[in-house]
């Protein structure tokens, strides 16, 4: 393969594809109006905006979390507000509340994970749920058991929530057809990674005070990235302008459906950006190498302090992790004040607490945080 892979078919200017055509799915079960969260004696009061939404008749109506595609802007705001209410628990000496006491949560991971699995587990434990982890290598999948049989056997142990990560797109929806537990997608193939996009949105909202009207540049392996799909859906739904730059081989067919601007270079995508999100090169999802070399990728698409000169002065830099240092991000950026990567990880726990609370309690019980 030669360096020609980096030549781009679009002109020197960014151009905008038609708007997002993805429709919200409305078919999920309706749940009762969430009960207001009650502060424990001596505890903190919950964010009042959440209670207001409840008073105004807002319902979080999702029993499963398959993707951002199913969530309205109001759902997203509600999840982020709920996450903010839970976030302060991390600062307490005793990081535990009884919110999901008695609930059983299974982490079913068929792919490696550091951040997502541990933060779902920490989130569940902080809310007093009983949790256990199953990974592909230690499950009977290695003996030939089908995914659906595995799920049915787990269901026989009466879990309330199953969090699943799998290399195949659509596995969360498949499991939901065979079990009674709520299903939360922790990443399915190149389809969606909703909790990552939600923690990304929470991090942007925290640092910028808003999402609407911001310019967000997404750079890297978009074709194989479920984070890209969920981020595109989430940020455009919340009113941000998203521009992308990637080697031609990393741009998926049909990217136009997301309403993002495809740019000819990183410099164009990053120009005037409030937020730059670098994506990992997903070598595990590529049969053949789609870029000439990591070094060449870094030269044209790596984010360094020189590239960021075109962005806004207060630009923040994000990455879902794991980072290939010196490839997607140079250390002068990864370790700089502009990097909010560890804030993303911290917010991941709060967002996952919110998701488990919203699907796990359905708001039917009064809870203490
Ligand atoms: N961002 C993310 O999904 O990281 P992990 O693969 O470590 O879970």
Q: Provide the spatial order of strands within the biggest beta sheet.
A: 1-8-7-6-9-10
Order of helices and strands: EHHEHEHEHEHEHEEHEHEHH
Structural class: alpha/beta
Shape: globular
The CATH architecture name of the domain at 194-341 reads 3-Layer(aba) Sandwich
Spatial gap, N to C terminus: 55 Å
Task: Give the number of DSSP strands.
Answer: 10
CATH class (first level) name of the domain at 194-341: Alpha Beta
- Quaternary state reads single chain
CATH topology of the domain at 194-341: Rossmann fold
* Gyration radius over CA: 21 Å
Largest sheet descriptor: 6 strands, mixed
pLDDT below 50 for ≥5 consecutive residues: which ranges?
1-52, 363-367
Q: Provide the β-strand percentage band.
A: 5-15%
The number of helical runs is: 11
Explain the overall architecture.
The chain has 369 residues and is of the alpha/beta class. It has a domain at 194-341: Aspartate/ornithine carbamoyltransferase (Rossmann fold), CATH 3.40.50. The chain has helices at residues 48-55, 73-87, 115-126, 147-155, 171-176, 194-208, 226-237, 266-270, 294-301, 331-334, 341-360; strands at residues 15-16, 104-109, 130-135, 161-166, 182-188, 215-219, 241-245, 261-262, 275-278, 316-318. The strands form two sheets. It has a six-stranded mixed sheet. A four-stranded parallel sheet has the order 3-2-4-5. Helix 3 (115-126) crosses helix 11 and helix 6 crosses helix 7 (226-237). The protein is globular. The structure holds phosphoric acid mono(formamide)ester (CP). Phosphoric acid mono(formamide)ester (CP) is lined by residues 113-116, 187, 196, 320-322.
């Amino acid at each position: 393969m030669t360096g020609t892979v980096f030549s781009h078919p679009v002109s020197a200017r960014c151009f905008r594809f038609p708007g997002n055509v993805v429709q919200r799915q409305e078919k999920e079960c309706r749940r009762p109006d969430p009960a207001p969260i009650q502060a424990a004696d001596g505890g903190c009061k919950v964010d009042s905006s959440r209670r207001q939404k409840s008073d105004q008749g807002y319902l979080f109506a999702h029993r499963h979390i398959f993707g951002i595609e199913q969530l309205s802007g109001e759902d997203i705001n509600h999840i982020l507000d709920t996450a903010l209410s839970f976030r302060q628990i991390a600062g307490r000496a005793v990081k535990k509340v009884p919110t999901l006491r008695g609930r059983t949560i299974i982490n079913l991971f068929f792919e490696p994970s550091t951040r997502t699995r541990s933060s779902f587990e920490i989130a569940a434990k902080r809310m007093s749920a009983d949790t256990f982890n199953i990974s592909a290598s230690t499950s009977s999948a290695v003996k030939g058991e089908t995914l659906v049989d595995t799920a049915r056997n787990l269901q026989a142990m009466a879990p309330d929530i199953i969090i699943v990560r799998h290399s195949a797109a659509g596995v969360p929806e498949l499991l939901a057809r065979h079990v009674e537990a709520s299903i939360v997608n922790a990443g399915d193939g190149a389809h969606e990674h909703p909790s990552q996009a939600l923690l990304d949105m929470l991090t942007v909202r925290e640092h910028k005070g808003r999402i609407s009207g911001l310019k967000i540049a997404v750079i890297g392996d978009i074709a194989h990235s479920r984070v890209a799909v969920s981020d595109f859906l989430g940020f455009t739904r919340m009113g941000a302008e998203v521009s992308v730059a990637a080697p031609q081989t990393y741009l998926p067919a049909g990217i136009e459906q997301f309403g993002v601007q495809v740019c000819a270079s990183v410099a164009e995508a990053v120009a005037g950006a409030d937020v730059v999100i670098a994506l990992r090169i997903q070598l595990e999802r590529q049969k053949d190498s789609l870029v000439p070399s990591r070094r060449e990728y870094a030269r044209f698409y790596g984010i360094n302090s020189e590239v960021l000169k075109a962005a806004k002065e207060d630009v923040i830099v994000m990455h879902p992790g794991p980072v290939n240092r010196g490839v997607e991000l140079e250390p002068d950026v990864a370790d700089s004040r502009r990097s909010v990567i560890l804030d993303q990880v911290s917010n991941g726990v709060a967002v996952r607490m919110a998701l488990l609370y919203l699907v796990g309690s359905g708001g039917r019980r009064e809870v203490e945080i």
